[in-house]
């Protein structure tokens, strides 16, 4: 897998995907979106990947938005296609991965950058991070899920304010809003991400995948989250992980989940 704008590494069950366009503050262009799709797909299909971390290179930015020069002259139809393809290739794709994804926000997460972070299953940030959706200052709206995921995470009123003012919030305010789960220093950010990943990896990967499906269903139009939970709960009973987990509990030992 040849990647120009993305770094891919794997160690001890954790795959780290790093957007690597430091001169552009890791801004998303179409090539980078395609490469991210390839990287996330590879990680999700790798049985040895238990957790995926996504972060940005350097110390300034996670992703400082989209590469505006690519679409400044687009038509209405082209704009709609841009958003639809972005959802399919990256943003919705990441949100529905079976493998847990943690966004490790190491600086500016603006526009499409914040939208990718919100598509991850949860987020942590360094104390220098700043987040926002500045699209209306360009005469457009967030098109990669921002108008939907931000209200889900911080509430409608706060989301409306952030979107309409095109403002930024710092990491402390993002933590207060519930947009991120943890804030730490930039030096300790990856260490914290790996610590959280380690806690996740102690549990059943099959059960976690089912939990992701059930939680997502509760936020999707036309889906009944409770019904999905019932179905996914039942599926767990047919897995080797369930047999191992319950046997280990009854035997008073730590489980060794086969991931099946």
Quick synopsis:
The protein is an alpha/beta fold and 260 residues long. The chain has helices at 30-45, 76-95, 112-119, 146-154, 156-165, 171-177, 186-201, 205-217, 225-236, 240-251; strands spanning 6-11, 14-19, 51-56, 61-64, 101-105, 108-110, 122-126, 130-132, 168-170, 182-184.
CATH architecture of the largest domain: Alpha-Beta Complex
Residue fraction in strands: 15-25%
Give the H and E element order: EEHEEHEEHEEHHEHEHHHH
The name of the CATH topology of the largest domain is 2-enoyl-CoA Hydratase, Chain A, domain 1
Count up the helices. Answer: 10
- Total strands: the figure is 10
Describe the protein.
By secondary structure, the protein is an alpha/beta fold. Helices cover 47% and strands 17% of the residues. It has 10 helices and 10 strands. The strands form 2 sheets. It has a 6-stranded mixed β-sheet, sandwiched between helices. It is globular. It starts with 5 loop residues before the first strand and ends in a 9-residue tail after the last helix. The mean pLDDT is 96.
Which structural traits does this protein have?
260 residues; 47% helix; 2 domains; 2-enoyl-CoA Hydratase, Chain A, domain 1; single chain; 6-stranded mixed β-sheet; alpha/beta
What is this structure's SSE topology?
Elements: E1 6-11, E2 14-19, H1 30-45, E3 51-56, E4 61-64, H2 76-95, E5 101-105, E6 108-110, H3 112-119, E7 122-126, E8 130-132, H4 146-154, H5 156-165, E9 168-170, H6 171-177, E10 182-184, H7 186-201, H8 205-217, H9 225-236, H10 240-251
Parallel strand pairs: 2-3, 3-5, 4-6, 5-7, 6-8, 7-10
Antiparallel strand pairs: 1-2, 8-9
